[in-house]
Amino acid sequence: MSTGRTAFELGVVLPNFGEHATPRALTRIAEAAEELGFDHVWVSENTLVPEEAGGDTRALDPFASLAYLAGRLERIKLGTSIVRVPLHHPVHLAKQTASLQKLSGGRLILGVGVGYDEHEFRLLGWSFEDRGRRTDEALRLLRAVWAGERDFRGEYWSFENVRLAALPEAAPEVWVGGLSRRSIRRARELGDAWHPNSGDRDNVRTAKELWPEGRVIPRAGLSYEPGEFPTLAGPPDEIARRIEALRAAGADGLVITFGAEPEATVAAMERFAREVAPRVGLLS
Q1: Alpha carbon of residue 152 to chain centroid
Q2: Cα–Cα distance between 109 and 129 in angstroms, integer?
Q3: Are 44 and 17 spatial neighbours (Cβ–Cβ below 8 Å)?
Q4: Residue 46's pLDDT is what?
């Protein structure tokens, strides 16, 4: 359908959560993604939360998961979708991310968000109401540490004459998650891309109106069964049409959840590469 356009990035969400969060599943899907030509793989973050919060909170740590994969994958980039920044001390987060960026050969993409579940904040002793302001300052601090700056002064954190020993040669990209206009502004001011957890083309179009030169790379689920919840649902030609619509709205890429069970997920990825990608000029 489309030719002669700038590169459109494609990523795959890995099951580092729930019953399929195993070394075998992570490796099987990630290696298939690299072989098929996808650009990046992604893991999520979930902390311990009170049982009354509900949901399946079984999850491997995102940075440990990506460090495990870094030595098994040669080319593909490694992303977090997403890390809840205000649940972390930013100096510790700066050390983790700088180390992973260095160990992976510069392949880390740090997807970030402010968080939404007050249970997590209460459990970890962080305030919930000012999480947006703390996220903004933490992102500034991360960039200062990655750049080797020895001094930083902020509202929440300050330091003088310190140094991170293992500086990355290049800072990781920062992709800002969220669906609000504030998250788009945060991406424009402090990030490298906006990464909404929605494949709605109206969100993409709004972001491009507010940030014309910015990169917008949403996350969406895919199912070959029509009528299901994922944004990309239906037969291959319908999925291709939906990707084209996102692209026409201004999307610069897409991060796709194909599933969790490893063999079914790999089969869905292979079908995508065989039946959908050629229709939109991708993975060739």
Answers
A1: 27
A2: 27
A3: yes
A4: 85
Per-residue confidence (pLDDT) for residue 57, from 0 to 100? 65
Q: State residue 99 phi and psi, 5-degree precision.
A: -65, -45
What pairs with residue 164 in β-bridges?
none
C-alpha to C-alpha distance for 58 and 234, rounded to whole angstroms:
30
Tokens of 209: 């109106």
Predicted confidence (pLDDT) at residue 245 exceeds the cutoff of 50: yes
- Which residues, including other chains, have CB under 8 Å from residue 13's CB and lie 6 or more apart? 41, 42, 43, 44, 81, 219, 255, 256, 257, 258
- Work out the angle at residue 79's Cα, subtended by the Cα atoms of residues 73 and 82, and round it to the nearest 5 degrees: 150
Provide the pLDDT for residue 55. Answer: 60
Say whether pLDDT at 213 is over 70.
yes
Q: What b/e sequence results for 130-143 when a residue is b if at least 16 CB atoms lie within 10 Å of its CB, and e otherwise?
A: ebbebbbbbbbbbb
Q: Detail the DSSP E strand segments found in the chain.
A: 9-13, 40-43, 77-84, 108-113, 152-153, 158-159, 173-176, 193-194, 219-223, 232-233, 253-257
Phi-psi region of 259 (alpha: psi -120 to 50; beta: other; left: phi over 0): left
95 vs 228: which has the higher pLDDT: 95
* Distance in angstroms (rounded) separating the CA atoms of residues 59 and 228: 25
